[in-house]
Amino acid sequence: MDLGIEGKWALVCAASKGLGKGCAKALVQEGVNLVITARGNDALQATAAELRLLAPGVQVVAVAGDITTAAGREGALAAFPAGAQVDILVNNAGGPPPGDFRHWDRETWIKALDANMLTPIELIKATVDGMAARGFGRVVNITSAAVKAPIDILGLSNGARSGLTGFVAGLARQPQLAGRNVTLNNLLPGPFDTDRLRGTMAGAAAKTGKPMDVLLDERRALNPTRRFGSADEFGAYCAFLCSVHAGYVTGQNLLMDGGAYPGSF
Ligand code: NAP
Fold first, then answer.
1. How many Å from the N-terminal Cα to the C-terminal Cα in the chain?
2. pLDDT > 90: what percent of the chain?
3. pLDDT (tens digit, 9 = 90+) per residue, 178-228?
4. Alpha carbon nearest to ligand 1 atom 24, residue
5. pLDDT number for residue 203
């Protein structure tokens, strides 16, 4: 299927690794020019080189910076070459740490809200009216399955991402956006085989004394598919949502979790 987005420009945040990188790979293979970000410049440049090899002729601009800061967001937006605009925005950042809410102070909460709620909202604010004026726009927010089925130790994530989800649900339905072919959707990953998942598992291994392989197998066995998702699968779904064919999908929370969520709806 031709996704119909060749030549468009996308900002894919937090894309040197994991799910963001999966989205960047899928988009670049559809001929979408990219600005990608991450804090660590070495991994970011390596990913940019990989993307250029995947799709010679497509432009890939890599900007190192913390997307949760105003400077990081300004740097990312300023990296678009003259004449290029953000047609597609993939919002992503690292997730907040796990813990017990009894130990979280205001600063901890503000950090989580900044990263996983206010940063995507700021980037949406900077881009959607331009998208509407041009008659095409796609926003995909990478959130979490924890929005639908909260995990107790991930209270910071549950809270911040639910705030974003509520905001997007209202905004996506504004006729000045929906009526101008601008869609906003949230993609909710369950367990995906990325550095983050392996980092969480390494923490659990250190705590329990169980070997990491055993913990990974136990976690896989909990999923109906008996495996983790791959970043490439995630990217393919994201690219479809960014395609010309997905103009009638907006304001949705799309779970991608191998069927782990047990409800009918
Ligand atoms: P990952 O493999 O650790 O990759 C995270 C990427 O984001 C890296 O490229 C990292 O590069 C970049 N990044 C992190 N913080 C950033 C910041 N402040 N500014 C710019 N770039 C930043 O993580 P992932 O598994 O892809 O997870 C992506 C998101 O999905 C996270 O919010 C995570 O909580 C959520 N999620 C993941 C899973 C899963 O199973 N993997 C499940 C549910 C939700 P630098 O460190 O160099 O900045």
1. 28
2. 95
3. 999 999 999 999 999 999 999 888 888 998 999 999 999 999 999 999 999
4. 18
5. 85
- For residues 94 and 242, what is the distance between their CA atoms, to the nearest angstrom? 22
Q: Is 258 in the pocket of ligand 1 (CB under 6 A)?
A: no
> Whose alpha carbon is nearest atom 34 of ligand 1?
95
If you compute the radius of gyration of the chain from its CA atoms, what whole number of angstroms results? 18
Cβ(158) – ligand 1 distance below 6 Å: no
**Cα–Cα distance for residue pair 182/60, rounded to 1 Å:** 23
> Ligand 1 centroid to 93 CA: how many Å?
5
> Which residues are CB-contacts of 31 (< 8 A; sequence separation ≥ 6)?
5, 6, 7, 55, 58
**What is the per-residue pLDDT across 76-98, written as a single tens digit (0 to 9) for each?**
999 999 999 999 999 999 999 99
Atom of ligand 1 nearest to the CA of 96: 34
